[in-house]
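ENTRY TYPE: paired fold submission
RECORD: A
CONTENT: sequence, then structure tokens
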Amino acid sequence: MTTYQTFETERLILRPTSYEDAPFIFELLNTPGWLKYIGDRNVKSVKAAEEYIKSRIIPQFEKLGYGNYTVIRKTDGAKIGSCGLYDREGLSVVDIGFAFLPQFGNQGYAFEAASKLKEAASEYFGLQQICAITTKDNLASQKLLEKLGLRYNGTVTLPSDEEQLLLYQSGLNHI
């Protein structure tokens, strides 16, 4: 099995999501925030989470060398969220996204993890720009995207979805 890059920050480890993360992925994908702002992925068991990892996460790592990272707190090894770079249908550039368990919100973890992946996108993966999408009512996500240096760039509707999303974009060559 191929080993993919793991990243570290002062407080966090960002490790490529793998099958061992299935119980955590099951929990994360069923949090109220995920369901409200990202959508129901119909992952209703740990077994379904394993299938989600197999069909949605592993293939992108195999294709591009990057994807969804499980965010682990260094102090205690707790899996607290996910952050990733996604090749998403309907977007012309790679999308950065993040989601954290509710008890780990508002502690700077999302900014810390996303900042590291934004840096890695440019320096490690050679991406020239990234984008992000969020719902119109997810003000916390919008604020974080702006703090990361992404700027509002209109709206987009992804294939097989009806909701109009806000699109943020950033060039990476100035990092």
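RECORD: B
CONTENT: sequence, then structure tokens
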Amino acid sequence: MKKQASDMSRRQLLKALAIGSAAGAVATVSGQAMAAAPQATNEPKPQDGYRETEHVRSYYDTLRNK
């Protein structure tokens, strides 16, 4: 039996096309995901934690006077 060289190259071509199209699809999807990702900003976020207000300062003053 004689092997045909054209069959082997055809198989390699089909494999390359399948892998290339899959890689292109992955690149497209990841590019869209990167575009949809929210961008980081340098704006300070409002803090909902501890705030030293006037009534808190007056309470601290009563503790210091004792």
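NOTES ON RECORD B: The CA atoms of residues 54 and 60 lie 10 Å apart. The two ends are 106 Å apart (CA to CA).
STATUS: closed
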